[in-house]
Amino acid sequence: MAKHGECGPGYKTPLDAMKGPREEIVYLPCIYRNTPVKKPDYLATVDVDPKSPTYCKVIHRLPMPNINDELHHSGWNNCSSCHGDPTKKRDRLILPSLISSRIYVIDVGTDPRAPRIHKTIEPHDVFWKCNLANPHTSHCLASGEIMISTMGDPSGNGKGGFILLDGETFQVKGTWEKEGEAAPFGYDYWYQPRHNVMISTEWGTPKVLADGFNPKDVQAGHYGHHLHVWDWTKHTRIQSIDLGEGTIPLEIRFLHDPDASEGFVGCALSGSVFRFHKTPEGKWAAEKVIQVPSKKVKGWALPEMPSLITDILISLDDHYLYFSNWLHGDIRQYDISDSKHPKLVAGRCLWEAACEGGPVVVVGEEDSQPQPLIIKGTRIQGAAQMIQLSLDGKRLYASTSLYSGWDKQFYPDLIKHGSVIVQIDVNTEKGGLTINENFLVDFGKEPEGPALAHEIRYPGGDNSSDIWI
């Protein structure tokens, strides 16, 4: 096994990555948009080393120079796709802003425990050079370039295109897709060069979802329900797969094995997971393999509450699939050894909108409302949302903020009290999820006021940022 950093960034194979070192610090964006705190969002560095005196503490905060950016997801300048190139280093974190359309390039190489801003790409660069806006998912490419998916155009309409950055200068080069090929909506994506394919997903119209969710907007066609299949070499959209109205497919994950021609996508509003795969004829298809039933409720916006699957992960050995039900409040673990028939092996009910003492009551279960989750004396607001798995698959981290506009609507106490990170111990032999009662990072106690912590990244790469080619 090549040692970490011996050849290039990341690891030669996903199984090599599983033997990598335990995570000691993590990075995650913290958001103040839509909260009473009128301060810039910031990047938090958190100590997750149990041997450290600052365990479970925020050890550094890097504020952005602007307010209302809505930092969201992040990626790297280089990852395991560049492992064979010893000249490459994973030393810059790419941090797009979902609302302002700024892109921050963060230096995490000079001092990993105290990142600093290396470069700011202003919105007008993205607008003028790409006619795109609302950047979301960032992945590095083996070419040395960086690609960022988008959700909209500069006017706030839906537009699923891809921004290309130079991997050395971080200048905006233009769009990855050929002119006229952008999808109606955009969100996440994953590429698999051995099959000459990339597949992207859809959230919705940025100006419609900016400050909240209205079910009527789904009926009006402002939310997506397709997977878009792209020719990786030609940069053209060759197929769109309709998953059904109201699905809203968000996070997409190919299996980590670069030879694999299949993966899974979590669909938020429909509470379902689809398996997508290459057919014998060379086309791509998708079928639903998991369905989480909605709950009949009283005291909520609708008579039925969907689970709202918002994040999905696959372990590096392609054995287990994990996802979070943000409204129902549980995290689930499935054995996907038989990918056509995922088997639920563990479901951990953490906390949810309909917990005891809250305004929402599950019809028919009035006497069995779950107790609020309390860890280290702190009542947890919101529910498990973004998840990240340790390289060895034994620890699952979960943060609680989805997106400030939706946090404010669905979990108003999350805005008041801030979000958290919890840790769940994973049984990788038989399956099983157990909350670590000694781990809690509480962003309700931040110096500038309660913050909304989002996606979790490890400095050495992780399950959702590294792609093998």
TrEMBL record:
GO biological process: protein transport
A single cellular component GO annotation: cytosol
Record Pfam families: SBP56 (PF05694)
Protein topology in the membrane: Peripheral membrane protein
Metabolic or biological pathway: Organosulfur degradation
Keyword Cytoplasm applies: yes
Residue stretches spanning the membrane: none
Broad class of the protein's primary localization: nucleus
Subcellular location: Nucleus; Cytoplasm, Cytosol; Membrane
Role, per record: Catalyzes the oxidation of methanethiol, an organosulfur compound known to be produced in substantial amounts by gut bacteria. Selenium-binding protein which may be involved in the sensing of reactive xenobiotics in the cytoplasm. May be involved in intra-Golgi protein transport.
Family: Belongs to the selenium-binding protein family.
This protein's name: Methanethiol oxidase
Gene name of the record: SELENBP1
